[in-house]
Amino acid sequence: KEYTVDGDLTIRGVTKKATFKVAALGKVQDPAMKAEKNVFQATGTINRKDFGVNYGPDEIVSDKIDLKINLEAVAEAKAK
């Protein structure tokens, strides 16, 4: 499944609205935690200058930066 997630992204103390496409990649067992993890990957593009990242020659570093975030989440245990 794929989702679109809107939220706030903070980089270098600057917060802006951002949109990410999030894909649910499935579940994996984590033997160390003795738990099942849900695995997700989020992708999106930001403008680095919107977040005050202005250093580096523009000819070498693009203003548009592609972000790829890998996330593993464990469901919280329900209280009995």
Question: How would you concisely characterize the structure shown here?
Answer:
With 80 residues, the protein is mainly beta. The protein has strands at residues 2-11, 14-30, 35-47, 64-74. The chain is built from no helices and four strands.
Main features:
80 residues; mainly beta; Lipocalin; four-stranded antiparallel sheet
How would you portray this structure in words?
- This protein has 80 residues and is mainly β.
- The protein is 0% helix and 64% strand.
- It is built from no helices and 4 strands.
- It has strands spanning 2-11, 14-30, 35-47, 64-74.
- A 4-stranded antiparallel sheet has the order 1-2-3-4, with no helix packed on it.
Tell me which CATH architecture applies here: Beta Barrel
DSSP strand content: over 45%
Q: Over all CA atoms, what is the radius of gyration?
A: 17 Å
Please identify which CATH superfamily we are dealing with: Lipid/polyisoprenoid-binding, YceI-like
Specify the structural class. mainly beta
CATH hierarchy, class: Mainly Beta
Return residue spans where pLDDT drops below 50 for at least 5 consecutive residues: none
Rounded average pLDDT: 91
**Number of helical segments with 4 or more residues:** 0
Order of helices and strands: EEEE
> What is the topology, as strand order, of the major beta sheet?
1-2-3-4
Overall 3D form: elongated
Largest sheet: number of strands, sense, barrel closure: 4 strands, antiparallel
Helix % is: under 10%
Number of strands: 4
Distance between the termini: 31 Å
Quote the CATH topology: Lipocalin
Total tally of structural domains: 1
